[in-house]
Amino acid sequence: MTRKKTKKVVVVMPAYNAARTVIDTFKEIPQKYREQVILVDDQSRDNTVAVSNKLGIKTFAHPNNVGYGGNQKTCYWEALKLNPDVIVMLHPDYQYDASKIGDLIVPILNGEFDYMFGSRIKNRGMALKGGMPKLKYYINRLVCFVQNILLGENFSEYFSGLRAYSNRLLKIVPFQRFSNDFVFDQEMTISAISYNMRIGETPIITRYHEKQSSIGFFKGVKFILDGFGTISRYLLHKAGIVNDKRFAPGRVKKTFRLKIILSLSFLALINIFVKPSSSQNIWLEIFVFSQSALLLFLIEEKLQNALLRKIVLLALPILVSIFVVGSGIYKDTFKVTNFEKNQLWVRQELYRRELGLLGRSNFGNKSIENTKLVLDKITQKITESYELNHYFSTEAFSFYPLFLLPLFALGFLFMLAEKIKLVLYCLGLATIGAILIPPDMTYWLFIPLINLGLLLGVKNIKNLLKVKKE
Amino acid sequence: MNKFQKLILIVVVIVAFILRIYLLNRVPAGLHADEASQGFNAFSLIKTGKDMYGKSFPILFRASGSYQPPIYTYLTIIPTIIFGNSIFTVKTVSALSGVGLVLLTYLLISRLLPNSKKEAVTLGLITAGIVAISPWAIHFSRLAVEANLGVLIFVAGVYWLASSLKKISLFPLACLVLGISTHAYYSERVITVLLLAFVVIIYRDVFLKAKKTAILGLGIFTLTLLPHLFLLATGALTKRLTQVSYLGTVSQGGLGYVGKVLEIGKQFINHYLIYVSPKNLFFDPGSSLGRTTPDLGVYYPWMLIPFLIGLGYLFKNRQNNFFKIIGVLLLIAPIPAALTGDLFYPLRTLDYLWVIALVISLGCWVVWRKINNKWVKLLVTLGVVGYSLIVFGISYFVIFKYELAIGSGEPYVKLMSVLDRYRGRDVRVDFSSRAWGVGIRMTYLKTVDPRFVQANLKSQLKTDYYSQDVNAQEIFKIDNITFEPLDWEKACGPNLILVGDELSFSLQQILEHKLQEEFTVPDYLGKPILFGYSTKTVCK
User: Is residue A220 part of a domain?
Assistant: First the structure.
């Protein structure tokens, strides 16, 4: 009980045209939390400010409309001036049960959480019973499901208009950098996640009614897309590819981003210039570049984000499959012609003569003979694609000029030393692909790996010269 | 080393021995001309102290229009004394070198690996096992080739060289053995010099601390190279290189000397690449059956994966002394072969193939360590070894003897007994480029008196014994049989027996000279290969 006396709670209400609902909302706030209530009006067209003032709420009015996010920025800015322990954000549209504020803030006051959601969707019955439209409910669920996967969280919803934050959270999370639009809430959540804030949920009743404010269809779509946009930026930030100040500073330095850009440019350059002139095919270019880039993402030590890794590991076979389908399956590999059967005949005679009964039973069986012929042809195709001379030599058919070979060798050795499983995975993928497609296309499946070898060769020259003390 | 490991080592050596000795006189069939030269020179040395040209204890043996490094021939003296002249005798040194290499590889790895003793022994056993069952190691151990002895001596040198980094007093011994290896095969002449130079430069700190020993070692090495200097002056040393290399034949491309250097550089890298190409090492059998086994590369295809893993491991641990030497060897070992113009010629690069075996073993060992269950380990090992041996067995012991038979002159070996029926008649055997070395083969197997051969061949020497210009296709004579190119102007007359292959006699010639078929000699498959005709008419 003593805690309640010492801890200060501020309720903030970002309002826009809320004159009709603000009274009900305010009255529902438990008495003990009504002392510190802030309402920020975002240039409402009704008399929200007047109603608010009448209720004795500390009211601020924007001189012009800045948006939902902009409104909240003022809310928190003003709330922080009061140095509260907990800040509760409550939509003044009477959709959320304000009497539950007590339940919402207890975990924060107890120091268990920094951020509490009032979740309307703890179970389907409650949400739909409360009047939430079915379409809205299912979209909410679907979006929440996907976002949970992307963020690695397990929330029941992301869109609630009743939330509570600790003072510490609002001082750490750079909310002033967030959007002024509806996506502000999403940014707040994702940024809090990036700062490792502890986030919890408590169930609340949904209460849909005619007076409440509602986001329009197009704005709703934009809101959801913005949400995913923010998540993508966050993942890229986490992976070190972009540096987004909305999120906790990554371990990755700015220079690393530059390196990635340089690496990608290098791959693009190699892709354009280093190949036989006969193969200027834009789809091939795109395939080789995208696969090289994917490999780069896999191999770079600083990009070892588990989710990204999984995505790339899955994307590689998909890309190879697309290439295989695009190149057309080479049926001759699996077809045995009479000519080939005749060629085998002399050897079969030898087997029969030398191995007697064993030779007769094993090599006289038609299906085994055919299998052996097909296996021979598969081996032949693999053999061809493992011919180094085809990739590096002074001959006209060679894909790369010979002087690049030492660079590739160096890069490939680094790959083997550090990422052997990955190299085997990629070689395996390329080999399977090479068996399936026409012989003249097989080399293209190995080119991305060679591109990467060249890139790593360039990057690791100085590492080679480094001498470790034994 | 515990009892179980000892048992494994014994099994590995026995397997290696069986794979190298079993049916040695029958598979591969026949006897190559070079093998026959080595055998006969050894025989001639025992009887007369001179080689077949009458040269006393040569430092390089003249044979088949070129020269053979001497050590193999000198060592063949021992089996010749024991077993007499036979196909088995001449291959004994090579086969035993192959077994020796397995054992030496085990010693080298188990004693020099930087890891714990237990791990070193395990890796040593794996490496010995890989060398024991590798197609190239078995293939060349079953041919009387100097290169197979060369690799054994060279590996012994590497063993002492690597040991000398810890115990410098072993350095002179290492230099002596490496020096001797240069007399065993051509490739070692280049590799040993490069390896020693690398090691001395990289570990100069070690050698600077013991200057006297270092100088002594290098002095011994230089001494062993002195015979080469003498041979260099005569032109005999580089005879083989000029025969097989592109160095003298590259075009200048209009750029004069610079153009030639550029072209040589280009050729060199292109040829070097052939030896590092996974295709050649693990898959492609190559076109020449004298080089590999049918349908098998120098290594089994599955070995590509441990090779890549091993390469990664080697590179990761490249700062370690032992692995550094292995890495350097991996780089320099293909150089001699890359200087020759052939597409892929494993015989010239056995040292390199041995290093590859080490890398494959490293990869196997990395995988081995990751498997925790001993039953899974056993199953995987038996599966892989079993598969390899079955594949090799079918390729080598079933198909190979048929497909190489003609190349190694097997029909000519059969011909010897056929010709016994014509003792009283003048027999002329066509000696063309298709039937290389037919004379020396029969001379060796028939144990012809060396003095007679020496007198015959000495008279045919057109240049000094050691010379850049070595005439080939000498005429051999054994009693009533003459081996010479068929000359229709001379080779006719009543009662002659003419022997040759199907290209030696055209239908027109048979009709014109009224030749009558006396006999045919079939190949392994039963197809007639050699034909014997008797002449009826006098010369036209």
Answer: yes
